[in-house]
Amino acid sequence: VMILANVIQDHGFFPVSLAKQKQKTHNNKNVNFQKKNTKVHSSPTTISGDRFITSTSPKQVHYKLQMNTCSQGDTSPAKEKYNTRLRESIFEDTLGLKLLQYNTQNKLRLTEKNDNNNHLPICALPLKPEQKLRAEKILDAPELRDDYYLNLLDWSKTNVIAIALGKTVHLWNAASGTVQELCSVSQPDNFITSLTWSEEGRYIAVGTNYNMVQIWDAQNAKMLQNIGGHTSRVSSLSWNHNVISSGSRDCSIINHDVRLPRRCVSVLQGHTDEVCGLKWSPDASYLASGGNDNLLNLWDLRHVGGDKCDPIYTLDHHNAAVKALAWCPWQPNLLASGGGTTDRTIRFWNSTTGACLNAVDTRSQVCSILWSKRKREIISSHGYSQNQITIWKYPSMIPITELTGHTSRVLYMSMSPDGNTVVSAAADETIRFWKVFHYPHRSTLAKPKKSSCGLNHKVKMGLSLTLR
């Protein structure tokens, strides 16, 4: 304490009322430093305002601390160790830097020019988070297709997970741990290409490689409708009440009203390549579509179904396929989109104005994006080259947590009804459950059953999905 008091006195860390009394002593100290060829900044002769901020550098203070400790004559090992630790605690990572300096490590920026000739900042990815989480449960998922443009995983409001493995759709009840096979296709070159639950969680839409959209009653395991209209595989699906929208490799989006005998209510043409991302906004006002043509289109529900079916905004800021789409649950006009391997950015959009609000470079292919239901956070899964899952703080986009375990690109992701757990499926043929958002609710996952030997009972999903 005495050492620090001497340093503070000698280097100007004292109230303005004492500045004039200490000015002479301070100038004398500067002379002593100059004799040792040490560069210093002398105190200002005129002090204005109610505060005095020293210009003394950390190197000078560190030097003075060394001089004071040596002059006391105690060179015992214990004293020397104490002085060393004191210097490290006070001046750690500050030597050579100015005191009271703003941290600029996370302020790196890349810029691009938008349509209005304004420079939009792209935030470089900050330092990786130190906290890492591991999966609570792991399911083996053989025959899970490694295809970036498909959508093969969804978690319903009734706490049932649907996953497509090859030709078959399996349902896994997260509360009870029971498994059932819902449907499968029989043609040799046919397979499941997309699926999504309805809002109430009773019905599920399934897209196939044979250009069809099937509507299934999951409770009774019965197919209700088999809808055509596309000329190529159905890669993406999204519900809007009684309307199921389907995106295809034929570049079109078809809106089907399942209540009508003639179910096609509109066809949207706005892409020149496969439509791999499709999401209705929470208030059912806007439809977002992403394609392999690097375009993000926003469609207004009021314009869908009439003579004019053009998108209200066509956004070409991404440099790769736009598959990852997610609407903010607590701000309906806020949309997040993610680009593929040559783009690697997550962008945020105002659907009302079409403005890009922010962009961050994730350094990996963006495969999926989810918003937290109660916190201002988002979670993203990635492919090449790092295959990571990252939780971000919004809107600062500072990485909070990294989820490790997958050994290949994390293609699909969905969230539990209570918002506590996220399930991810990757090209390494595993499905992993992550307890990422901790809310005061009961867990949505079933506990593995115990056998008489005390070992975890294996849960088989159609003889192809097993719980480790």
Question: Could you explain how this protein is built, in words?
Answer:
Strands 1-2-24-23-22-21 form a 6-stranded mixed β-sheet, with no helix packed on it. Strand 29 (410-415) and strand 30 form a beta hairpin. It is 12% helix and 38% strand. The two termini are 58 Å apart. Helix 1 packs across helix 3. It is globular, with a radius of gyration of 30 Å. It has helices spanning 2-10, 19-35, 58-71, 77-91, and strands at residues 109-113, 119-123, 132-133, 137-140, 153-155, 160-165, 168-173, 179-184, 192-197, 203-208, 213-217, 222-227, 234-240, 243-248, 252-257, 264-269, 275-280, 286-291, 296-300, 313-315, 322-327, 334-339, 345-350, 355-361, 366-371, 377-382, 389-393, 398-403, 410-415, 421-426, 430-435, 460-461, 465-467. It is mainly beta. The relative contact order is 0.11.
- The helix/strand class is mainly beta
- For the largest sheet, list the strands in their spatial order: 1-2-24-23-22-21
Tell me, briefly, the overall form. Answer: globular
DSSP summary, beta strand count? 33
| Low-pLDDT residue intervals, each spanning 5 or more residues | 14-49, 93-119, 448-464
Return the average pLDDT rounded to an integer.
79
Q: Mind telling me the C-alpha Rg?
A: 30 Å
Strand content: 35-45%
The total of helices stands at: 4
Spatial separation of the terminal alpha carbons = 58 Å
Helix content: 10-25%
Largest sheet: 6 strands, mixed
